Amino acid sequence: MAYFDAASAVPLHPVARQALLASLDEGWADPARLYREGRRARMLLDAAREAVAEAVGCRTDEVVFTSSGTRAVHTGVAGALAGRRRVGHHLIVSAVEHSSVLHSAEVFEADGGTVTRVPVNRAGAVDPSAYADALRGDTALAVLQSANHEVGTEQPVAQVAEACRAAGVPLLVDAAQSLGWGRVEGDWSLLAASAHKWGGPPGVGLLVVRKGVRFAARGPVDERESGRAAGFENIPAIVAAAASLRAVRAEAAAEAVRLRELTERIRARVPELVPDVEVVGDPRRRLPGVVTFSCLYVDGEALLHELDREGFSVSSGSSCTSSTLTPSHVLRAMGVLSEGNVRVSLPPGAAEEDVERFLSVLPGAVAAVREKLGAPAAGPAAPAADGDAVVVDAVGRRCPIPVIELAKVIGDVPVGGTVRVLADDEAARLDIPAWCEMRGQEYVGEEPADTGMAYVVRRLS
Amino acid sequence: MAYFDAASAVPLHPVARQALLASLDEGWADPARLYREGRRARMLLDAAREAVAEAVGCRTDEVVFTSSGTRAVHTGVAGALAGRRRVGHHLIVSAVEHSSVLHSAEVFEADGGTVTRVPVNRAGAVDPSAYADALRGDTALAVLQSANHEVGTEQPVAQVAEACRAAGVPLLVDAAQSLGWGRVEGDWSLLAASAHKWGGPPGVGLLVVRKGVRFAARGPVDERESGRAAGFENIPAIVAAAASLRAVRAEAAAEAVRLRELTERIRARVPELVPDVEVVGDPRRRLPGVVTFSCLYVDGEALLHELDREGFSVSSGSSCTSSTLTPSHVLRAMGVLSEGNVRVSLPPGAAEEDVERFLSVLPGAVAAVREKLGAPAAGPAAPAADGDAVVVDAVGRRCPIPVIELAKVIGDVPVGGTVRVLADDEAARLDIPAWCEMRGQEYVGEEPADTGMAYVVRRLS
Questions:
Q1: A201 close to B (CB below 8 A)
Q2: C or N terminus of chain B, fewer CB within 10 Å?
Q3: Degrees (nearest 5) of the Cα angle A39, A45, A48?
Q4: Is B205 in the A-facing interface, judged by CB distances under 8 Å?
Q5: Is the domain A10-248 a CATH 3.40.640.10 member?
Q6: Are B1 and B314 within 8 A, CB to CB?
Q7: Is some CB atom of chain B closer than 8 A to the CB atom of A103?
Q8: What is the mean pLDDT of residues A168-196?
Q9: H or E, element range at A94
């Protein structure tokens, strides 16, 4: 049994568990009350706030505890936008932000705001100068993650923060994936994070609003948390979250080196062990524990099931694993293959032997899925010669079938000939060009067809 | 040491503690994931939802877990109003709702909505026919608490629900104070509650939206909790909350009888033991564990400190205990004395000997505060005869000083003569008329003065 989905959630840190138990007894009362149980709760809350402020590198009165990281982002984005509504109604986000940021942006757009989504390179990173170019006179807020949750790529936060500072625009950093590893560098204005990513309990998010940042809380408020997070404070969980943050930070430097070595091993060995695999994300500027790859001709959900049967818990950005049947917006923005996508995110303490066992199990798991799907054998298809244009009808077939069908027939057209793949699965738009890139074939483009789209590929070799 | 502020929060129920510990180990993963840790978390969440649905008396797919009772109210009110925005922009609440409801109403008003605040009688209850009269063709939502959080008075929810149903208006019931005691009767449409009031952990609220009720979630959403509560589910806390609800319900019938007897004892004995006290709230239709009284010539905060020193944790609706320096809106709506206000709310399991000790300690605590403030002795003042109109200047003096000064001089005017109390403390508006009622003097009315108001009292006896 190996849990390799730390980017989603990690089990409670032993230190957090201890702190939670103690503060269930000591911190259940209302900290706004004057009697001893209330004062005791207030002391615990104050101490937790100090610990978190120290870990973040901010003042205690800049820290707001929310009920989740998602809530911290929603509150932070809405409050900062409202605080600067006289400046303008323009918001900048990167194209690969967490859904909580993108959903906030959609709400802002629906209310009449304008949103610029800064693109990323094939490694998943924004270009700081492209980000800076998006800043306008009416920009109310800029948002950038410290590191990407799906591929682990670190963003150039300090440089973007500098550009924002120069333009007088506050930058909100979504530090959900990185805060356990260290402070966010650079002169940011707001920060959001989530405790259950660093071994704290669920139910605690963190919103930091620097002094001097204009902020107008939205919706009904109360007196708690500086009027920025309504509702009874969850003190036992907050205390546990703070304790856990201190504990993982104490272990962070050594553990980062160890996990980086393990993920480097996965990055290097998976393409050797498994044919037709693309490892995605920045190879160097990345989170220590995250490695993501996509496997041609593989159904992500089926692969997750195979790996689960073998005792490995990982996640996937493939469309077949999402309820919306669209591939991950991160992989789409990067322009990389989404089919057969696997994210391995190692929790602190992940065992080397589990990683080795994963590497030994993965090739068989991928092969089993490919066999069930009738995937073509690896390598370029054998030349064939009937006609110079072939049409493959994959309408109604889900990822990765359209790509599998394409691969099966590419050898049937001569070099210079074309294959038209008819498909209505959203993933085909991403995966057919990605297949061409991996296979050295030419992606000509897409055209509307009777049902869905026609994706045209020219054989080059 | 006795904690008598259960209406604010109660310590974790032992059953909840056990459930929390178990599900910290089993329920920390993302329930949306396909791997075993995710499936295990999903099973725990589903089981908790079933237990809560059974306790509430609703379908499992009507239950939404939020991060607090306040959040449940905010989400429920906003979602129901938005769901019926085509019907109209009129909201009905009672004047004595929890601040989370009133804050929601204020936001709705600021956005152009109209709010009717249904008054209450001197016992704190709405009149069902007055509530029904407030229903209009453009009423989008009606809100009523099941029982009041400050004085314990139960509201006629079933009758109001019937009137709302007849008018086709959904009724949202804030059941925060009563859900641990039993299901909410009547044909309500939405329900909100908070787990830490029934011995669950903080961090769990409950929103129930009946099938068929129009509901449009506001703000950024995600796929969790039917799109009605964004953010990672706090499963360990939800499991603990459900376990606690079952446990307190199993004990509710017997415990209600026991606590009702204890609070009845306080209701009866406090006026015998302490002079110049008004017990407020409905003597019969009330929560089992809550009893509230106000003491003339007493500073609520000072009394809370005295009682805390004696080992009793209670709360107060007096203005001097709130950061806004206004008396509780509940006491104001009831038109009862707010000074020296004490709410005793017994948690399940409260010991009889602690209640007896409270009764033995209270008279001395009140007397000590009165002595410090220089309060007049109890009973009608001795007749005096210099002039038939006296002016008392209490500008800049906080509650209960204006009333104390009034009581000191009332004997200096002849029967038929008047006292004008100049005061700028908001509590005087409530407490001077209440004093007149308690003392059998005539409250003539208020007039604007150079600073603050002049409150005019005529001596009748």
A1: yes
A2: N
A3: 145
A4: yes
A5: yes
A6: no
A7: yes
A8: 97
A9: strand A90-94
Identify the CATH number of the domain defined by range A251-373.
3.90.1150.10
Q: What span, in angstroms and rounded, lies between the C-alpha atoms of A315 and A293?
A: 11
Nearest chain A residue to B301, by CA: A34
For residues A98 and A197, give the distance between their C-alpha atoms in angstroms, rounded to a whole number.
14
- Beta bridge mates, A424: none
pLDDT tens per residue, range A218-235 = 989 888 898 899 889 999
pLDDT of A196: 95
pLDDT by residue (tens digit) across B17-61? 999 999 999 999 999 998 999 999 999 999 999 999 999 999 999
Instruction: Give the gap in angstroms from C-alpha B320 to the nearest C-alpha of chain A.
Output: 12
How is domain A389-458 classified at the architecture level of CATH? 2-Layer Sandwich (3.30)
Amino acid at position B303, single letter? L
pLDDT of residue A386: 59
Model pLDDT, residue B460: 93
Best mutation target among A10, A17, A25, A67 (most B Cβ atoms within 10 Å) is A67
Complex prediction ipTM: 0.93
Residue A422, phi-psi category: left (phi > 0), alpha (psi -120 to 50), beta (remainder): beta
- Contacting A residues, span 212-231, partner chain B, CB-CB under 8 Å: 218-223, 230-231
Q: What is the pLDDT of residues A331-354, one digit of tens each?
A: 999 999 999 999 999 999 999 999
* Structural contact between residues B41 and B29, judged by C-beta atoms closer than 8 angstroms: yes
B401 phi, psi to nearest 5 deg: -55, -45
Q: Within an 8 Å CB–CB cutoff, is residue B301 touching chain A?
A: yes
Among the four given CATH numbers 3.40.50.720, 3.90.1150.10, 1.20.1560.10, 3.40.630.10, the one describing domain B253-373: 3.90.1150.10
Q: Which two tokens stand for residue B144?
A: 């009523």
Structure-block tokens of residue A232 = 């009874």
Counting every residue written for chain A, the total comes to 461
- Give pLDDT < 70 ranges for chain B: 378-387
Distances (CA, A) of A75 to A98, A161, A193, A222, A236: 15, 20, 12, 14, 22
Does A221 sit within 8 Å of B9, measured CB to CB? no
